[in-house]
Amino acid sequence: MKAGIIGLGYVGLPLAVAFAEEGHEVVCVDTDQRKLAALARGEGYIEDISSERLQAVAGLLSPSSRYADLAAVDVVVIAVPTPLTTNREPDLGPLVGSATSLAGVLQQGQLVVLESTTYPGTTRERLVPLLEESGLAAGRDFHVAFSPERIDPGRTDWTLRNTPKVVGGLTDACRERAVAFYREVCDEIVEVAALESAELTKLLENVFRSVNIALVNELAILCDRMGIDIWEVVEAAKTKPYGFMSFRPGPGMGGHCLPVDPFYLAWKAREYDMPTAFVELAGEVNQKMPYFCVEKVAKALNGHSKAVRGSRVAILGVSYKPGVGDLRESPALKIMRLLAEDGAELVYHDETVPELGDFGLRSQPLGGALEGADVVVIVTAHPGLDVDLVLASAPLVVDFRGVTRGRQAPNLVRL
Fold this sequence. Notes:
By secondary structure, the chain is α/β, with parallel strands linked by helices. It folds into 2 domains: 2-193, NAD(P)-binding Rossmann-like Domain (Rossmann fold, 3-Layer(aba) Sandwich); 229-414, NAD(P)-binding Rossmann-like Domain (Rossmann fold, 3-Layer(aba) Sandwich). 38% of the residues lie in helices and 14% in strands. The chain is built from 13 helices and 15 strands. It has helices spanning 12-21, 33-41, 51-56, 93-103, 122-131, 172-182, 195-226, 230-237, 261-270, 277-302, 331-341, 366-370, 387-393, and strands at residues 2-6, 25-29, 61-64, 75-78, 111-114, 143-146, 165-169, 189-191, 312-316, 345-349, 355-356, 361-362, 375-378, 397-399, 412-414. The chain has an 8-stranded mixed sheet with strand order 3-2-1-4-5-6-7-8, with helices on both faces. The protein has a 5-stranded parallel sheet with strand order 10-9-13-14-15. It has a two-stranded antiparallel ribbon with strand order 11-12. α11 (331-341) links the parallel β9 and β10 (345-349). α4 (93-103) packs parallel to α5 (122-131), α7 (195-226) packs across α9 (261-270) and α7 (195-226) runs parallel beside α10 (277-302). The protein is globular, with a radius of gyration of 23 Å.
């Protein structure tokens, strides 16, 4: 079998490598020349795929910017970004562009699978018509399926291989073809009856997390006012052996999925005169957390007779989650922008993110970031962070991740 992957990010690249490791040829298409060049050199550029893994399958991976190269494959997987516009509405531009280009080379008998997260109806209402501009009929001349990605960057316990794969098809034959395709790299396949069911499955998974994170974030703000330790409350609540699932507060949500998916669902729901107030409220609560965090930093500085303006603020961790260098929707960036607008002098330490071009900053060694800082703010606690050194070196520490729990210090403020 020969496969084609469109989009070589956190979803597409692991999928391409997985199929290559099973002995299949993979055409890897992307518009980012840097990714294509790195792939050609056998250099890994995301945490989940090492250079060693790439080099081991180099002969089976064909990096390309030409959609024409997809004419010779059996299956094409579309794994392009599906971001939000500035008005927080679905931006299907990358998907439309990819589908339009693919239609120009689509061949009879091929299977096209969409993995990009999107609202129910996208595959049937947007992707299929674009592909049919090829003159071929979906479900008759070529197959179409949707299978939501379930990649959690940096995670090693749940991988593409052992995470159940949800698959829905335009027709039964389409679904069966997609199931056979994914059985090559996935141990368990979960078949659903319709494309829309598969699309909504991914949204439900992430809306569930968004709503519960919003709940605990809102409680964190309340606990701050009431003088209650939210971390102690969460730890105590999760001892209940049934009926409770633990979620932790934080400075906001990052990554592609959690900050985006609820708005995809809410946007689609309005088409059916069904406002999803609960879902939208959760998104709003989580979007407000960076503002609350900045207020917390300002209040902490005020307690030390300092203003934000003119203070040297060291941010520890700017990616959206520990152990990865992914900046998508990272709350740290919003916190830094707000602090900069208030006149703070910013420095940061994050070994996974060498530089922040928008801020004109480069990551400093931990000691350099701590030196001269008026306040150190723990936004993302990467593995190996020397919390004791931070507490011993900084005149003021604000912890938004709860990594200082169990420690008492006069210079420590926690969420």
